Target: TadE/TadG family type IV pilus assembly protein
Amino acid sequence: MSTATTSADASERGALSIFVAICATALLMLSGLVIDGGGRLIAIEQADAVADEAARAGGQQIDRAALLQGKGIRLDPQAAQAAADAYLGASTVGNNSVTGSAVATDQTITVTVNATYHTTMLGLFGFGDIPVEGHGSARLVPGVTGPDPLTSTGP
Model:
């Protein structure tokens, strides 16, 4: 018993294999978007946390000379920036070191962190590292329930 192959059947030979290959590639790309998209969001959260912590480290640098002279409580901007930069130098996002900058005034410090997220799945499709950025700031507000009278700078 033999079965004859018609010309219509012969032209469709292997069509399922091509369909499976296309669907598998699309599924890999979709899973890459989910995995690496989530990884990027985690890296952004970590960069924000590093920036917040660096700002807090800088926010602890009080200008003692101004305080002793009765000029109120204020930040030492140079010391605050140095403390934030030192914190950034020792920090990582994932397994990657971070770079960043800190800008301080006598009342606030703002920190920006730059890092890189290394893709896991999307690297298979030519998408390499993705830059991430985090922001944090700290404002000097002495007192527990309200502003402390020591913060006034006079009449």
Q: What stands out?
A: Strands lie at 92-93, 96-97, 99-104, 108-117, 130-139.
